[in-house]
Design a protein that fits this description.
Blueprint (H helix, E strand, L loop, with lengths): L1 H4 L2 H24 L5 H8 L3 H29 L1 H21 L3 H29 L2 H32 L4 H4 L1 H15 L14 H24 L4 H23 L13 H31 L4 H7 L1 H21 L2 H19 L7 H28 L6 H31 L5 H29 L17
Length: about 475
């Protein structure tokens, strides 16, 4: 039936449309929620810790299961896992919109993250299996563009929907898109799997990494409520250290590990992942708290807050492709170093803003940050993929995405811990500003550390070793 409806050539591009629909949804949900947070807080009566979990829970589940999602897609079929992920994500979106409590919304967001982790690596694997090498670059470029566009317009979409309809519709809107993507996936995507080597799930690796990341995030978010020296928080930190140490040991000894530690023998690959981790660590928390700052302190509406981020997001869309092309000629190190430095300067500038700042004061920082993030993201991805063998490019990309999501979830938790500690239980404007400034100073220090990491570890024009065989990425 599919053969009669589409030629071989056109079906490839319709396959790209199908996976792009799913990708757009999961990347949009990384940023669309931030602008809706004040409305969610008012309607559900939740505190700062619950708001952090609403955002961090999604990123944490996404990060913890991303590599496993790639393994499942390779073993059981990329179309199957993609469609299953779509169904899980769409059903969880319905649950998010129907949530009548903070706890229910947090749980639904975690399930959304599970669906996203199944879908994301399958999208890239499907593209690699569908397109020949001479067209693969163009297809992946469109894939990356869809991802960037979704991240960029998330705040504006969230603002418009929240103000003119209701915050629940930032989740309900996923349902028709998800249903359409499921139908398109079944009709348009050919099944494929990796039969070139043994496939085995790394259950111990999944368990120890998930427990470690959850325990660390829990300790950072809940420390202010229970006290940093409370038994609950100290136990959580101890569990995090033990579980993450066990994960590193297991991955070193596993025959088929979830995370291939040999990739980190490359200084460039290590540096690129650390830079992405630090960039997300600094910026996810900033988007979270700057959204609250604009609405709760400066009095912006949801639409105004979403629109306020446009200079930054437009610059990311415009500058990132140019930076990507230039890295092919002059390497990634200079771009990453300058980019993280600009991000650090943006955060230092934000930390000086007061409770009566006008948009004219916000604008320069948004411009500087947009250029900085654009100079960081694409060159980091290029550096990471250049530094690994071609047959491990997909695994390398999945590791990079995992580091980004881990950094995001921990960034929200860390900035929130600083904010809550400085506020000391107060809920006034002065209390917010007392925490806002030092949190941004810490974020600036993290970003500037990323600039140093890029300058020291990333090597210019490091080329990937020659691979004997090419297999689809996980």
């Amino acid at each position: 039936m599919r053969a009669r409806l589409f030629t071989e050539t056109t079906r490839k591009w319709w396959t790209l449309v199908a996976v792009s629909l799913g990708l757009f949804m999961i990347m949009l949900d990384n940023t669309v929620v931030n602008v809706a947070l004040p409305s969610i807080q008012r309607d559900l009566g939740v505190g700062l810790a619950e708001l952090q979990w609403i955002v961090a829970g999604y990123a944490l589940a996404f990060a913890a299961l991303l590599l496993t999602g790639g393994k499942l897609a390779d073993r059981y079929g990329r179309r199957l896992v993609f469609v299953v992920g779509l169904v899980v994500f769409t059903a969880a979106s319905l649950a998010c919109g129907l949530a009548d409590s903070g706890e229910f919304l947090i749980g639904a967001r975690v399930v959304q993250g599970v669906g996203a982790a199944l879908m994301n690596p399958a999208t890239l694997s499907i593209i690699s299996a569908t397109f020949p090498p001479e067209q693969r670059g163009a297809a992946i470029g469109i894939w990356a563009g869809v991802s960037a566009l979704a991240l960029a317009i998330g705040p504006l979409v969230g603002g418009v929907v929240t103000q003119h309809i209701d915050w629940t519709w930032i989740f309900f809107v996923n349902i028709p898109v998800g249903v359409l993507a499921v139908v398109a996936g079944v009709l348009l995507i050919d099944e494929s799997r990796d039969s070139s080597r043994e496939q085995r799930l790394d259950v111990p690796g999944l368990a120890t990494s998930g427990i470690g990341l959850f325990a660390l995030t829990y300790a950072l978010i809940e420390a202010n409520g229970y006290g940093w020296t409370s038994g609950r928080i100290l136990a959580s930190l101890a569990v995090a250290v033990a579980a993450l140490a066990a994960f590193a040991l297991l991955e070193h000894r596993q025959r088929l590990p979830m995370l291939d530690l040999s990739l980190f023998r490359s200084g460039t690959f290590t540096g690129a992942n650390l830079v992405i981790l630090l960039a997300a660590l600094a910026m996810f928390g900033v988007f979270f708290f700057v959204s609250l700052y604009m609405q709760n302190i400066l009095g912006y509406s949801a639409v105004q807050a979403g629109a306020a981020f446009l200079p930054m997001t437009i610059l990311i869309i415009l500058v990132a492709p140019v930076a990507g092309r230039l890295t092919d000629r002059i390497g990634s190190r200079a771009f990453m170093t300058v980019g993280m430095t600009l991000v650090g300067l943006q955060l230092l500038y934000f930390s000086r803003l007061g409770a009566d700042a006008g948009y004219a004061e916000l604008f320069p920082a948004l411009v500087v940050g947009g250029v900085g993030m654009a100079l960081t993201m694409t060159p980091s991805a290029a550096a990471a993929t250049r530094a690994v063998p071609v047959d491990k490019a997909g695994v390398g990309a999945a590791v990079l995405n995992s580091f980004r999501q881990v950094g995001g979830s921990l960034g929200i938790a860390l900035m929130g811990a600083i904010m809550a500690h400085q506020a000391g239980g107060r809920t006034t404007v002065d209390a917010f500003m007392d925490g806002f400034s030092p949190a941004l100073l810490v974020a600036a220090g993290i970003a500037l550390t990323g600039a140093v990491v890029a300058a020291v570890l990333v090597r210019p024009h490091e080329r990937a070793p020659v691979a004997v065989s090419v297999e689809a990425p996980a």
